[in-house]
Amino acid sequence: MANESPDLYLGCISGTSVDGLDVALLEVAAHERLLVHHAETITLPADLQANLLQLADPAQDSLDLLGQCDSTLGEFIGHALLEFLARVETPAKQITAIGSHGQTVRHRPPGPQQPSSFTTQIGDPNRIAEITGITTVADFRRRDLAAGGHGAPLAPPFHEALFSHIEGHVVVLNVGGISNISVLGSPTTGFDTGPGNCLMDSWTQRHLQQPYDENGIWAAAGEVDNSLVQTCLDDPYFASEPPKSTGREYFNLAWLEALLKTPEAAPNDVQATLCELTAACNRLAIQRWAPQTSQLIVCGGGRLNGELLRRLTAPREGCNAPQVQTSEDVGVDGDSIEAALFAWLAHRALQRLPGNEPAVTGAMGHRVLGGIYPA
Ligand SMILES: Nc1ncnc2c1ncn2[C@@H]1O[C@H](COP(=O)(O)OP(=O)(O)O)[C@@H](O)[C@H]1O
Ligand SMILES: [Mg+2]
Which ligand 1 atom is the nearest neighbour of the CA of 211? Predict the structure, then answer.
């Protein structure tokens, strides 16, 4: 047994923020022990990134652009993964499978306003398999939708596997473009809580021509408009019962502008307000749906926003705030988690093991997720 070669998987995802391709090399060791060996975020070519952002904008509609981006992103991922393997000195033949999430360009989960739910991720897995010669698993969300679920979030069972060693009532908060929480337990539950970085990023791009507000410094220099925070929190998404999931087709600048009663508001005050909104929607979700929480572990790019962390941690009257730590504080590299999730889901698919958690997504049952594109 000891000489058997390790069961290695590559996972990759380009998240809602479209900030890069996250890649991870995961070993599934004996007793399903999970070891992330290497992880990186690989920059997307600027023109591909611009096209993907355009596709993710609900005001746009172009089948040609969709088809082109699907192929181009699939090719980019295939080559990027081969280069990653070269950098980490691991031959492709040692990889059991790739789990590729791709890029979400539209997410329309089930709901009263959505007679026919759908979710679309692109990054052609045929091309990834062709270029790498590695079996590729992709299309992880649609089976769950077919079973009546949201197809999102998929992270909670993986968060359970990664963070089960932590004592207490643990909630894992991933602040990506959108925020989602995993309430660890049996079963682990969770849902998308609302905006993560997406509104702050869009506002920073508009006013500072920078991709994001480094460490939340710009937000920290502004003053929160509490009445605007409340107006935002009155959006029915926040009070709606889980299962629920959302995306940037919902929380975007058009959504914000419809609520901004004072268009002349100072841009950094709005940034401070958006930062507080992200913190507040998560604090409220935890108070309401996971009131026992004693430990809050923050992962995703938002954990690097000091002002957001400060706002998540700030004590509130009348409630016991959980202890807030980043994933690094508990020994888990926060940059590799999402990509490692899809490596793990590739392993689950090949083993015919379920990848979804019905208590999270609302699906009728456990399902094996993903289509398999053989080497
Ligand atoms: N140093 C930083 N300071 C503030 N925010 C950051 C920093 N680094 C990353 N971020 C935020 O994290 C986002 C990327 O987070 P990520 O978890 O990759 O999201 P997604 O999964 O949606 O791609 C960036 O767009 C940015 O908003
Ligand atoms: Mg990302």
Answer: 25
Closest atom, ligand 1, to C-alpha of 213: 4
d(CA 95, CA 36): 13
CA 342 / ligand 1 centre spacing (Å):
19
* For ligand 1, atom 27: residue with the closest CA: 197
Where are the chain's structural domains?
Answer: 8-153+336-373, 156-330
280: which 2 tokens?
Answer: 């507040």
Give me the mean pLDDT over the 54-74 stretch. 89
Q: How far is the CA of 288 from the centre of ligand 2 (A)?
A: 28
* CA gap 149, 364 in Å, rounded: 7
Identical fold, 8-153+336-373 and 156-330:
yes
- Written as six digits, the tokens of 122 are 């692109």
156-330 fold: Nucleotidyltransferase; domain 5 (3.30.420)
Q: What is the pTM of this model?
A: 0.93
CATH number for the region 8-153+336-373 comes to 3.30.420.40
Other Cβ atoms less than 10 A from the Cβ of 123: the count is 27
With a cut of 80, say whether residue 366 has pLDDT above it.
yes
Cis omega (within 30 of 0) for bond into 267:
no
Determine which residue's CA is closest to atom 15 belonging to ligand 1. Answer: 301
Residues 6+ apart with CB under 8 A from 78: 127, 128, 129, 130, 131, 132
Q: Is 338 in the pocket of ligand 1 (CB under 6 A)?
A: yes
The per-residue pLDDT for range 179-224, each reduced to its tens digit, is 999 999 999 999 999 999 999 999 999 999 999 999 999 999 999 9
Ligand 1 atom closest to residue 178's alpha carbon, by position in its atom list: 22
